[in-house]
Structures are given as structure tokens and as C-alpha cells.
């Protein structure tokens, strides 16, 4: 039995839980406790424990689960197809997450450290610009992020777009993103881990 450590409202934990659901993997989830700090030097969730094997970093956990549990439908075996999925997963973790962080912390988390109006506006603009890049990509290369098939890239970016849609701010109309997000709603696990009212 897999153990996923971290709160179910965490966007990074939900990546792992959605991946488990897509792969049909049974798991138990544990809330993060001080005792779990020994499992991850960063003291952050999620952490996966698989028969004594401990792993952290959400995108790495998702890739590992596919490699260990015959998840080629989500994580292709062919090198170029796999690289395309990995490329968009890394873009989500670096470029997109960096773009939304300040605005999200201000508008959703109400962080006292994120109160500068100019930085909030810049964050909104950068966030919208990045989703616009995704929209253009889907328009040219859809129906899914990495092409013809649903993959891990759709899981991690689906959660990011869910966060974008749920944050109280002005957003452009991106029709390709909207159509793709509607398709995500048909996937196993979407309702529990993405379209569940949690940003």
C-alpha cells in the first residue's frame, strides 16, 4: 500500500493523488506531522512511502508511480514523447508557479507579506500571460498538453489552471484552455482532486 503524506488541499499533494487515481492505485493519505520531517530535508509535502522507499518532489513522485506501475498511458516510453510530457511538467513547476506565486499569496492566502499593489498587478499580468502561452500551445497542438493523449502534463497543469480559475482576479478569455479544462472534467479523479472547490 502506498502512503502519501500531506494535506489533501495542497496542490502538490493533489498531483500525486490524482495520478494514483488515474493508475488505479490504492493509497492511504496521512496528514503531515513533525515526525515526518525526517523523511524530507526540506520539511515539505508531499512525501511518498512505497514499501519503505521514500520519495519527495511532487512531479518526481508522479513520474515514479507511472514507471513502477505500468503508467505508460500517462508517461510515454518513447523518448521524444516522454520528453514532451516532462517539458511541460517542468514548465509548470518553474515558469508558471513563479508567475502566480505573489498574486495567489495576496488574493487567496491573504498573506501579510504580499500586499504591494504593483507586485500584485504584475503577478496577475504574468499569470495571465503564461496561461495565454498554454492557450496558444493547445490551439496549435491539442487536444492534450503533450499532443493526442492525456498525460501527467495534463494533471499538473490542470491543477494550476484550476488555481488560476478560482483566484478572484480579472482573466482573459482563453478558449483553448477552456475546452481542454472541460475535457479534464471527464477524467477519473478530476472531481476529487481538481474540480473540488479547492484552489
From TrEMBL:
PROSITE patterns: GST_CTER, GST_NTER. Gene3D superfamilies: 1.20.1050.10, Glutaredoxin. It comes from Massilia timonae CCUG 45783. PANTHER family: DISULFIDE-BOND OXIDOREDUCTASE YFCG, GLUTATHIONE S-TRANSFERASE-RELATED. CDD domains: GST_C_2. Residues 1-73 form the GST N-terminal domain. Residues 78-199 form the GST C-terminal domain. This is Glutathione S-transferase. InterPro entries: Glutathione-S-Trfase_C-like, Glutathione-S-Trfase_C_sf, Glutathione_S-Trfase, Glutathione_S-Trfase_N, Thioredoxin-like_sf. SUPFAM superfamilies: GST C-terminal domain-like, Thioredoxin-like.
Amino acid at each position: 500500500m502506498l502512503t502519501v503524506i500531506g494535506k489533501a488541499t495542497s496542490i502538490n499533494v493533489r498531483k500525486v493523488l490524482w495520478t494514483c487515481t488515474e493508475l488505479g492505485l490504492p493509497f492511504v493519505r496521512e496528514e503531515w506531522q513533525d515526525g515526518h520531517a525526517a523523511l524530507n530535508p526540506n520539511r515539505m509535502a508531499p512525501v511518498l512511502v512505497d514499501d519503505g522507499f521514500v520519495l519527495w518532489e511532487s512531479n518526481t513522485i508522479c513520474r515514479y508511480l507511472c514507471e513502477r506501475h505500468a503508467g505508460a498511458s500517462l508517461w510515454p516510453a518513447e523518448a521524444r514523447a516522454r520528453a514532451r510530457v516532462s517539458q511541460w511538467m517542468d514548465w509548470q513547476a518553474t515558469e508558471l508557479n513563479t508567475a502566480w506565486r505573489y498574486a495567489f499569496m495576496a488574493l487567496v492566502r491573504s498573506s501579510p507579506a504580499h500586499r504591494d499593489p504593483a507586485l500584485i498587478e504584475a503577478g496577475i499580468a504574468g499569470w495571465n500571460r503564461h496561461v495565454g502561452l498554454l492557450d496558444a500551445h493547445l490551439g496549435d497542438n491539442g487536444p492534450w498538453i503533450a499532443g493526442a493523449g492525456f498525460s501527467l502534463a495534463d494533471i499538473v497543469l490542470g491543477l494550476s489552471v484550476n488555481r488560476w480559475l478560482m483566484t478572484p482576479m480579472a482573466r482573459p478569455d482563453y478558449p483553448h484552455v477552456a475546452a481542454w479544462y472541460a475535457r479534464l472534467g471527464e477524467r477519473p479523479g478530476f472531481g476529487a482532486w481538481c474540480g473540488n472547490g479547492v484552489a
